[in-house]
Structures are given as C-alpha cells and as structure tokens.
Amino acid sequence: MAIKKEHEVIIIGAGPTALTAAIYTTREDIETLLFERGAIGGLAAVTDHIDNYPGFADGVDGLVLADQMRKQAERFGAVIELGEVTKIDAGKSSVKLETTSGDVTAKALLIATGSDYKKVGVPGEKEFFARGVHYCATCDGAFYRDKRLVVVGGGNSAVQEAVFLTRFASHIDLLVRGDHFRASDVLQEELKKHAGKITVHLNTTTDEIVGEDNKVVKVIGTDKLMGKKVDFPTDGVFVFVGLMPNTQFLKDSGIELDEIGFIKTDDNLMTKLKGVFAAGDVRHGATMQIASATGEGATVALRIREYIEGHKVINE
Amino acid sequence: MVKNITIFTTNTCAYCVMVKKYLANKGFGYEEVNLDTYPERQEEAQSLSGVLTVPVTVVTKDDDSKEVIVGFNLSRLVPAVS
Prior knowledge:
The complex is a heterodimer. Chain A has seven helices and 19 strands. Chain A is an alpha/beta fold. The radius of gyration of chain A is 21 Å and the shape is elongated. Chain B has a four-stranded mixed β-sheet with strand order 2-1-3-4, sandwiched between helices. The longest helix of chain B has 12 residues. The radius of gyration of chain B is 12 Å and the shape is globular. Classes of the chains: A alpha/beta, B alpha+beta. At the A-B interface, helix 3 and helix 4 of A face helix 1 and helix 3 of B.
C-alpha cells in the first residue's frame, strides 16, 4: 500500500531514539511516519545482550528490547515504512523528502539515523568483507563454529561481542591497540571468565588481513612494546573499533556536520535547517548509550511538539 | 512471478527479522532455514551467497531462475519479489 504524501512528523531511522520520539509524538496525537532502511532497533537490535538499560534487572536481549520498543510505538499509531530517504529539502513551512517510497512532506523532520561500526582501514579488510571480515557478531558468528577468530577493538562492543563469539569459536585473539581497555569494568570482569578461550593482546595494532584461496588465514599486527610484527592465524575477523554517523545522505543538504560527520544542533536539538531536528547517536556530542538515546528521543519529541504547535519560537 | 522464497537465518540476526517482516507485510510466504537449528546447511547458504553472513534470501521464479539477496537489502529485495 502506498504511503500518504503529507505528514506531521517524519523520523528517519527506527532505533531507540526514533522509536522513543515516536512513542511521545503519537501519544500526543501527532501523526508520525518513520523510515528504516536497516534493522528496527538499530545497533541495539544487533547487540546480543544489553545489561545497562534500566528496567531489566537481568539485562535484555537487543532483539527483544528493539521489538518491545517497536510494538510500543506502533500501539500508539506510529507507522514504520521500510525504505530509505535519499534527499532532504527544507522549505519555509515544511520539509520535503525524496524516498524510495516516493516523495513526502512533513511539518517537522527528525534525523535519528544513529551510527554504524567503523572500518579499521587496513589492507584486506575491504577485499574480505563478509567473507572473513565482519562487523556484526550476532549476524555472522554462527559461521565460525569451532574455528579461530580475531576480534579487533578494546571498547564495550569489542569485549561484549568477543564474549558472545565464544559460543561458536574455538579460540579468540582480542587485539587492543592501547595499553588498556576502554570497556566497562563489568565487561572486563566478564572477559576474565572466558580467559580459556580469549587471549588478550594489549598494545597491538591491526595492520593487515591476509587471505589465501579466497579465505582469511591470518591477521598481521604489531606488538608496539616489542616493536615487531606478529601473525595471528585465524578463520575470520570481527571489527569493533568505534562508530561513525549515518549521515552520508546529508551531504549537500545544508545541515551542519562536524569534522567526523555527526550533526550539529542547537540546544533545542534543531539543526541549521528550520524544522529539521537531530537526536541520538547521530548527533554531535552523543554518548552512544541506549539510555541516552531514548532520553534524547523523549526530549526531541517535546521540542518538535512545541515547534509544530508554534507555542514557542525556536531558533529565531 | 515468485514461485517460492527461502531465507537462511540465525536466532540472533536482526536483519533476518527485517527480511521476514518485509515479506510478511507484502503477503509472501517463505521457508526459513535457521542455521542455529540446522548448522549442516551452512555450506548451502555459503555456496548460494558466496559470503559468510545471514540473512540470505533465495527467490525462485516461475521459470526456476533464482535470485540470491544478501542482508536486508531493499534495493534488491523489492524488485526480486515484484
């Protein structure tokens, strides 16, 4: 069924920020359409287990949390269109969008496209993408039953996903560029429980991913303390070295981005374009936490309501 | 016309959920092969797709030609089932 052309609020993305904002707008009877090109729930949905989101004493699986948020938003009337926004054009009274589902307009637009895992940027990474180099453990880990893996990164995602991958892998080498983990103490304690399967290599850079016969066979790294190259034989590599914002489609939109590509907003979470808001992981200054994302979703929904109702002059 | 659709999935794959949701919304039935349940069919998924990832969606047309779509890729999935 074709979607209608004119909307009160359009949200690009359907992660925790977007779904929370949609819960708030639709509960205020503000008609809201969301566009999602990937997974509903965003990175939260591809996270195996989430232990730091309030309200779940024993933690919650990412897929379950994402599905509950979706159901809650849909219960109040939010509509999620599986499609992609390709162009934004902010006018005086509305925002026009070109999408894979046709052209649409909205009184206000929220960009909540979140972020995605960064590439490590070494030879072999691109060549073996999805054929030995991966960025989603919950998607691709099952292909490595009883095989050796390398996990790259020292933050929360790297440690959490390395622990998840012990379900499948016979052994994991965890390569950490720095001299310590950035992951939380709780996750580091969890990591210690898997010391039999995970070997940690601090001060170790990832320099090259090497394959033979169309398969990954090893990672070449550098032990920075010893100043020498080290080979890590492996069947696959999972990379978790930080996040990059999903803002490539905003190039030439007039929206101000920082040097990395995160969206700059004012105190009301509005961008340089009138009626165009941004919140969550895609926003400059975001803390990349699900709890923060949902909080920003609620805040931006209230700002959007004020903007639409014209009760308060914003950004003028 | 679409004759049948097979989706290779795993229990924890969020993009698999999206493919199933999209096809269900459009009224398409499909056979799901969960590789956590049937790990012996992993090589089949890999040989069809050429990659080590799920979802892998195989759309078989009336003339028995097959289209293989890796991931939740709407730009390929939509025309494949149209």
